[in-house]
Design goal:
The protein has 24 residues and is mainly α. 75% of the residues lie in helices and 0% in strands.
Length: 24
Amino acid sequence: MLSMDFKEVSNFNSLVHKDIVTYL
């Protein structure tokens, strides 16, 4: 299991979401 703090997870999720939106 990866241990990341909430800030890292939130940042990662927003990057992924941004990439998905750009892809679509």
